[in-house]
Amino acid sequence: MSTIHLRQTTTATPEQFVAGLTDFGPGRAELFPNSADDYLKVHSQGPDEADVTEGSGGVWERLRYDWSDPDRVVLTTTDSNAWGGASGHTYTFGRNQDGTTDVDLVTVREG
Known about the structure:
Shape: globular
Helix content: under 10%
Order of helices and strands: EHEEEEEE
Low-confidence stretches: none
């Protein structure tokens, strides 16, 4: 199992970041190149959760998105042709006094 930890500061608010992350419409690949339109399928979506299959280049995964916590979005892999077990992504947001946002991403990959 591999864990990847990334951190970036952005001028986007957490709400703006979540809006982009949870926009499953056409053109998603403009923000997320590994989410090609022809792989994208929204199985269900509610006000703070979604069940989505996405991918590109022959690799796909089905993810349960949960953005019920305004400071965190959790994506849990529920099916994939490449990833299994405890795979997923967790985005955590830190609001800074200068109006910027620290985005902390932890990605776990289990083959």
